[in-house]
Amino acid sequence: MDKMPKWADVILTPLISLILAMAISALVILAIGESPWEALTTMVDGALGSSYGWGFTLYYTTNFIFTGLAVMVAYHASLFNIGGEGQAAMGGLGVALVLLYLPLPHWALALPAAMVGAALFGAAWALIPAWLQAKRGSHIVITTIMFNFIAAAALNYVLVNLLRPVGSMDPASARFPPATHLPKLSEMAAGIGLDWGRNTPVNVTFFVAIAACLLVWLLIWRTRLGYEIRALGRSEPGALYAGINPVRIIVIAMLVSGGLAGLMAINNVMGESERLVLNAVEGAGFIGIAVALMGRNHPFGVFLAALLFGFLYQGGGELALWTSIPRELIVVIQALVILFTGALDNMVRMPLERIFLAMRKRGRA
Amino acid sequence: MTAGGDTAEGRPETAAPAAIELRGISKAFGPVQANKDIDLRVPKGSIHGIIGENGAGKSTLMSILYGFYKPDAGEILVNGQPLTIADSQSAIRAGIGMVFQHFKLVQNFTVLENVILGVEDGRLLRPSLAKARGVLKQLAAEYGLNVDPDETIEELSVGHQQRVEILKALYRQADILILDEPTGVLTPAEADHLFRILRGLKAEGKTIILITHKLREIMEITDNVSVMRRGEMVASVRTAETSAEQLAELMVGRKVLLNVAKAPARPGAPVLEVRELKMVDDEGVERLRGIGFDIRAGEILGIAGVSGNGQTQLLEILGGYPEKGSTLSGAIRLNGRDLPLSGGGCNAAERRRQGIGHIPEDRQVEGLIMDFTAWENVAFGYHHAPEYNRGWLMDNAAIRDDAEGKMERFDVRPRDAALAARNFSGGNQQKIVVAREIERNPDLLLIGQPTRGVDIGAIEFIHKRIVELRDAGKAVLLVSVELDEIMSLADRILVMFDGRIMGERLPHQATTGDLGCLMAGVDPATTAPEDAIPPAHKHVEELPGESA
Fold it and tell me: Which Pfam families does UniProt cross-reference here (chain A) (predicted)?
């Protein structure tokens, strides 16, 4: 019998974690002499109060969906992929190469081509850690972290020495051809006569991200591959007994994970900046870990958690803009949310389980 | 006699205060009532058996007695004095000692260090060690508890490790000794020696509580026996006035066939031929030293032996997944065709396609994914089967249907295919595995410890199904550490010791003593050469004839 009803597990626990994180954040804001209530209203207003705010919130959400799904898929194979950051950066390189060197006449053609490039580069960046883990037992946490640094350095080199247009002082690639411009949601809204989210970066990739959630759900819970990934993640001896090849599954799961992280580049590189710049990922790879944890490693949960972090990102930016709360404190607030929803999950979960058990016992007696 | 009819009051030893008396002990874990209003009276200087199926609440009761759990209600009297046992320290102070099924010894400490661990007299170890050495010597002389005090635990055989656990308890001045399934890991000879020790302790006035599911042991050594069923104490009787059949019936709540009724085997052509099979693991230890045997269609070949003598490796190799990094030689033939021992063709999926089913030794680690639902587990290993799939996707509805049918036919309870495997009892988990493997109708079924941790009712059921498979003309390889199981189920018995086959017996000719010798590495007919016993097994020296 389960310890708690499913709704308590999936909704109540993260909600309480979130409230705890907000309470401590409020104390911190009080301690520096600002009003927590004002901070909260500024954040909510700035992120959700207007279509402009929503446009940014959903843009960040899109990033976090991809990196969250990446962590989630690997997690089901019991692999902790911390390399989303590097894989997403490499995905950006894949996007840039495809868009700069293939003559693509229309965004509808450019999008699938760039997706292939992004996924291939992201997956390739996950392949070496996966191989080392599967064959040599090198711990994937260590190798993927190191590969983040390698990716950053390699991208730096490529941008400065290879992709930088002649005469430019900026370590960034040339702009992608205008034909490959992805429609923004605001433009699509304008197309049907709506004034929604003008000058916001959210674009069609948002729908790709939602499709990715559905596909990942199918993969993990409806295919033989997903079955084998989950089986291996829970018991390697069991997998061997069932004729599942651990090396194969570890490599495939990491390829899928890296590919998903790489796909984030469609949103930020192709959809937003329309050229490859340094540090394009901006920590979204790491946020993906918190998103997957908070989303209970389910695509629907990942979607909701990504939305929350999208709100925190956009709301935090607004906070820095309109209040005298320093930028660093916003990072503190985001970190508290990650800490409570991700790392300290059991702190809330276990007392809750005890409460539910006690309630059930009383209900019986 | 009806269950519950005989209670403690019916017995004569009521004059002196009992060593342990429990009154109305209850304990619930969430919705599960593990112990319900338990009364128990253990007279001083007696050996008291507690018997019951898995999950009957024996271990919970003993954990309460040892201070691990606090009872929800009821009272504990030790030597007539009411006592609250808050933790194991107060249990020890009350003179209660516990020998766990899984020993709690520090592997790289010596016997002496383990004995004084936690009861050192001061900051310096030397005086404590010297004192313990003296006490140990005296205990060894008194009870035949011989162990070299300076040997490290990892060098000792399982039987000796258990003696160290008993010594630890006695060193802490335990008058009441609780032993939880003490013979599970012992050879028959080691078990006999343990019983001699226990009788010696009883003669000195110690009280012993023996928790076991082996009826034979209860009948052999106990004075009184209490039977638990579903958290309740259903009977307490004098051992001399009962029988194994009656106890089994009390445990299960209905009549049980202890011995499998089966017709003589009618073996056909050889299904499995194993020749000169050798295996060296990744640390260079030779685990199998040239194994050869045949199994014919329509026969059950039993492999007896103390666990850890190569049976696990044999099953894994036949199942298609030899240990990582091991090197193999020899040959395996199934229905006359060679099976690869390594490379791409050597995996469990391929072996299943060839017609080998496998009920693994450890259902919780291998046979089932504990977090998966029952229906997901029914497809485990066969998830590529066409009937479970529709194109790219798995046909979950079909798997569910099949699972529900299997649970119905194998009487898996509760009959809820959506429940996670971990929420079933051991016996029902095993039934899921057995249903999955047997209903595939394999030419050869590999079975490891089919009834480990399984209750008597389910054991009977599983045994019946295995015999049915045999009668349908299939070959069965049965590996078990339970001699009773091997002797009642197998048509031929091989005994494994240290990676070799020590000998072959027919069940109706074999005696426990004879098989016990083989299990200890000694062939009673042609005494094995000295070099057959490697250093690690030097301590397996207790033979039935050895004087204590």
Answer: BPD_transp_2
Residues of A in contact with B423 (CB under 8 A): 1
For residue range A27-52, list pLDDT tens digits in order: 998 998 889 999 899 999 999 999 99
Sign, CA dihedral A15-A21-A25-A26, equals: positive
The SS3 of residue A122 is helix
Q: Would you call B369 and A234 a contact, using CB atoms and an 8 Å cutoff?
A: yes
Q: Which of B321, B370, B389, B440 to mutate to test the interface with A (most CBs of A within 10 A)?
A: B321
Interface of A with B (CB under 8 A): 1, 3, 218, 222-224, 227-228, 230-231, 234-235, 237-238, 240-245, 357, 360-361, 364
Domain that holds residue A160: 11-327+337-347
Give B34-63 pLDDT, tens digit per residue: 899 999 999 999 999 998 876 678 888 888
Q: What is the pLDDT of residues B250-272, one digit of tens each?
A: 887 777 666 777 888 899 999 99
Q: By CA distance, what is A4's nearest residue in B?
A: B30
Q: CA angle A62-A65-A67, nearest 5°?
A: 110
Q: Is residue A114 part of a domain?
A: yes
Select the residue of B31, B366, B384 nearest A364 (Cβ to Cβ).
B31
For an interface test with A, the pick among B392, B423, B424 (most A C-beta atoms closer than 10 Å) comes out as B392
Determine the residue among B26, B315, B372 to mutate to test chain A binding: the one whose Cβ has the most chain A Cβ atoms within 10 Å. B372
Q: Please tell me the distance from the alpha carbon of residue B447 to that of residue A86, in angstroms, as a whole number.
A: 47
Single out the residue in B143, B172, B201 at which a domain terminates. B172
Tokens read off for B471: 């009668």
Residues B342 and B481 in one domain: yes
Contacts of residue B25, defined as CB under 8 A and 6 or more positions apart, other chains included, come to B35, B37, B38, B39, B40, B61, B64, B71, B73, B74, B75, B76
pLDDT value of position B530: 43
CATH of the domain at A295: 1.10.3470
Q: How many domains is chain B built from?
A: 3
Residue B391 lies in a domain: no
**pLDDT at A229 (0 to 100):** 97
Q: Is residue A110 part of a domain?
A: yes
Average pLDDT over residues B286-312: 92
What residue in B sits closest to A359 (Cα-Cα)? B30
Strand partners for B302: B478, B493
Full domain range(s) for residue B239 = 8-95+175-252
B387 and A CB contact within 8 Å: no
Instruction: Say which amino acid occupies A94.
Output: G
Please indicate, yes or no, whether residues B231 and B112 belong to a single structural domain of this protein.
no
Residue B333: CATH number of its domain: 3.40.50.300
The confidence score (pLDDT) of residue B532 equals 41
Banded pLDDT at B546 (limits 50, 70, 90): very low
Among candidates B348, B371, B392 on the partner chain, residue whose Cβ is nearest the Cβ of A240:
B348
